[in-house]
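Exercise 7.
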Amino acid sequence: MTHPGISVMMYLVSAIEWTAFVCNHTLGTKWQDSLAGHGEKGIMSSIVSCTLAKNFRNPWGVWVIAGLHGLPVWIIGYQYNLFGSHLWFLPKFVQPLGLVILGMGRLLCFLIEIWSIWIHISVLLVNTSMS
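Solution. The predicted structure, written as tokens, is:
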């Protein structure tokens, strides 16, 4: 059984993911180049560029994608005690360590999604104010 607060948070996560998807979809086939080459300077711009480099085929990209796709599966394994029943041979520290590593990757993914939405909105506002 899931905690009620967790299920409510999943709606927020899903809404952010879909909003980021729509914002990036409007950039077309070169969405990665548009985000990575955005003129805004700062730590997030550097992190986004590092993550998107080589089509996510780098340590940052693998970490983010693993957090995005692996964390839900890891949490389900935790909920249904798969580590105790089927993966009993793994050391006890693997379960919380995986949760932390995948959780941090998902958090980084969340920050990149928020950043891409922010960039999309700021570009819309600048283009609207110039016309």
